[in-house]
Here is the input.
Amino acid sequence: MSATGATGADASDAPEARGAADAAGATGATGATGAADATRAADTHAAARDAAAGAAAGRSPGDRPEPGRRSERVPARGRPGGASRRPWAVAAGGLAAAAAVLVPAVAGTGAPSGSSADRGAVRSGPGAALGRPASATEPGAEPRPEKCADGSNPAESLKPSGASGKAVERIEKKDKLVVGVDQNSYLWGYRDPATGTIEGFDIDLVKAIARDLLGKDGADRIVYRTIPTDQRVPAIQSGDVDMVVRTMTINCSRRAQVAFSTAYFQAGQQLVVPKKHARVKGFDSSMRGKHVCYASGSTAEKMMKTPAYAGLGARPVVVPNQLDCLVRMQLGEADATVTDSALGAGQAAQDPSVELVGEPETLEPYGVAMNLEDEDLVRRVNKVLEDYRKHKWKSSYDRWLADDMMGTEGKKPAPPEPLYRD
Here is the structure.
C-alpha cells in the first residue's frame, strides 16, 4: 500500500471511474492502518457523534454526553450558487460524524487582559493573517514574512508558462491528473455525506488545473487520493500523486523538499477553543499543563516545538489530521487546538460550541505542491493561477468561505499577490 493510504484509486483508474473520489469510504489513512485502527476510528466516530449531539443541546466540548442521546441533523442554510451546508459532516479519521448547528460568526472571546486574545479581533481569510512566521522566536513578536537562509521569501515561485515539458506530457499521456487532497477539512476539501463527492475551496482549484491540462472535461479525469497531513511530502516525492492541493503552507523547510506554485490563499496559526469554560485563553501562561492538539507534520507542530512556544508548558496531543483535534476537544481529551485560521474557521462552522480566539501567530501562504523536478508543471499551474485569481477565485471564495471568514481592516477578500524568483 502506498504512503497515500487505502484510497481505492489504484483499483479504479479505469475511464468509468475517473473523477470519483478514489472509492466510496476512502479514509485517507496511512499505509499502516489496519483492523485495529479501523475499530478505533469507528469507536471515535460513535463517541464524536454523541459529543457533537451534546453541542446541539447546548453542552460544551468536555461535557459528557447523555447516555443514549442521538444527534439531530439540522437543515443547512443555502449557499451561493445553490450549494448548501451540511454542518454534520465532521470527520474523525476520515469518518463522518454528526456536528451541531452552523453559526456564521467567527469571533474572539473576552480573554483576560494581557492575553494574546487582547491584541485585536480575529482576523482570518486571504491576506488577513497579520501574524508571526512559523519560525517566530517568541509569542508576541512583530509580524513578518518567513525568510529562508538565503534571504529569499519561500513563497517565490517560477514565472508562469503555458509550455508543455516532461511533467505536463506525462499527465497528458496517462489522461488523468492524480491529486493529493483532504476529505475532512470542512469548506476546503471534504466529502459531502449526501453525495459522497469531495468538495471545497481547494477542490475548485484542482478542477481548474485539470481543465487546463486535460481539456474541458478534465474535471472528470481527476483521481483524488486522500492523504494525512504528514504524508503530503512523501506522496509527492514518491510519485504517488502529481500534486497536492491540501491547505499546504509554503515554507522554507518544505521548499527544499517539494516545489510550490505561487500562493493562492493566506492564513495563520491560531487557537480554537470551547466557547464555554475555555481553559486556554491564548499563547500565554494559560497553556501551562493544558492539552493542546495539532496535526503531525503541520506548521502548527513546527511552531509549537520552537523553544519559546514549547516553554509555554502545553501538553501536546498530536494527531494525523487537524480535524481529529476537533473530535478530541468534543471528547474532552484536548483543551485547545492550534491550526491554520482557515481550517479553524471550518471547525467553528461545523461545531458552534468552539471558536477562534486571538490573532494568527504566523503568515501561512497556501500553495500547490509538486515534485522538484516538475518545473514545467509548476509554471503551468502558475499560469492557471494567473487567470484563476482574476476570474474564479472570488466566486469560489463566496461559495465556500465568505460566511465563515473575515477580511482584514475592511479590505475586500482577495488572493495574495504572486511572487516570482526568476
Confidence is low (pLDDT under 50) at residues 1-135. The longest strand covers residues 269-274. The first helix runs from residue 35 to 56. Residues 320 and 383 are 33 Å apart (CA to CA).
